Amino acid sequence: YHDLFDRLLDSVLLLDTESFTILDMNEASERILGAEFKALEGRTVLDFLDPSDRSESEKSLRIARRRHHPKVFEARWFSEGREQKRVLEFLACVLKLQSGDEVIQLIARDVTPLREAEARAARYLQELKEVNTRLQSLSVTDELTGLFNVRHFRREIAKEQERGERYGQPYALVFI
After folding, report:
1. Could you tell me the pTM of the whole model?
2. Taking the CB of residue 28, how many other CB atoms lie within 10 A of it?
3. Mean pLDDT computed over every residue of the chain
4. CB burial of residue 77 (10 Å; 0-12, 13-18, 19+)
5. Euclidean distance between CA atoms 51 and 55, whole angstroms
6. Phi, psi dihedrals of residue 68, rounded to the nearest 5°
């Protein structure tokens, strides 16, 4: 396990099952979390999470501890020296050590770029919808007068023709 622990590219923290205090972490954690083990050792993992994420994160850790199966959750991690918070996806599960003691193994993966890309994509999609709405409006109105154009007229007359045929009702068209 120690060999795997040290070689993993994802951050792995070992936490006390009761207080969620950081007991150990691998080298990848220092890179991903932006802090050395000495700065984190003995402190609860919740200290480094965004205040708005702490309650749900603590609940997820308690569930992982109690149910003895992995629990996945996200939280924003803040470390001194970094100007922005990183969005981390955590996988928490109980790990039984050779001594018989249990710890919570917390695997953290930085999903900040993914979440930022999703936010950009959502913004782009919203902008695209707005542009398409504007294009739709431009396609059926006269640019100079703002009145409906022939394209709109043909579409509406086709709807009325279908409606008349469907209900077997005559209809009239009046040009002024």
Report:
1. 0.70
2. 19
3. 89
4. buried
5. 8
6. 55, 35
Calculate the CA dihedral of residues 112, 113, 117, 119 and round it to 10 degrees: 20
Sequence letter at residue 87 = V
E strands present in the chain: 11-16, 22-25, 71-77, 86-96, 102-110
Check if the beta carbon of residue 61 is closer than 8 Å to that of residue 19: no
| Distance from C-alpha of 42 to C-alpha of 15, rounded to nearest angstrom | 9
pLDDT of residue 20: 95
pLDDT digits (tens, 9 = 90+) for 34-72: 888 888 888 999 988 989 999 999 999 999 988 777 899
The DSSP call for residue 141 is B
